[in-house]
User: Fold this.
Amino acid sequence: MKESKFKQYFFEEAQEYLTTLEQGLRGMGDRSFASQDLEPVYRAIHSLKGTSGMVGENTLSDLSRMLEDTLKVLKTTNKIIDLKGETLLLKSVSYLSKLVDMNCNNAIVDRKWLEEEVMPMFSQLGDRFGTPEPETTVPLELPSEEVEQDLKVLLFEGEVENCLQELESIIAAGEVSPIKEKLSLVIRQLGGLGMMLELEAFSSLCTSVEKQLEAEPEEVEAIASRHEGIAVLALESWRESQALVLAGKIQQLPRNLEYKENQPVEMEEDLDWLSVIG
Assistant:
């Protein structure tokens, strides 16, 4: 039952990763770019590689790793992407998307198609852009309980981190109007993740944030301030939860968020929650 939850969550998230990849890479051949421009697409392919491997989609994971290697080279060497290079990158994303659709629909993947069409195309990535320096890794066979914890860590390092970074950006920019919309989206994403991973306290925290957000004050002028305050406190609680999951301290996860009217709130910058929780 838990495996089917993982797979369902994976297929939903895979579509978002692929959308980020396609949108981020399109147009790269028409303009210059900095290393940070590739951060969103690099995080997306890294998450796709990791989660696909965790749910047993090994072919998808292997191909994602090849694209991740290419993006790693582009991030660290500032190689120029011309139009042909952009086409090659977008085609690789298209193949990944086809594989996700096939796996989602339980379709049998044609080995001949993989070997004669897909793999040669992905091999062109290394030929055209080069490969990163090899890293030494030691294969480790984990017991099932450790695999579950590893999946939690992977998702909290990837998907949760992406959600919180986007929320941080909106808060830091002082963009008041989209805060409620973005916060509602983060609540749905993280709440669903908590249910899938059976982190009851984390799901409860998301529900608590949602209830606070729905309790609108009567004074219109106070609404924007309330939304911003809730967003800052929720961000801090989610950051604390993330650090606790990464530290393996699931039993200490916060369950509720309390927001008081006129409560002064300020976003903590560069706070290392792993140090705070010890």
Residues 136-144 have pLDDT under 50 and may be disordered. DSSP finds eleven helices and no strands in the chain. The CA atoms of residues 60 and 96 lie 7 Å apart.
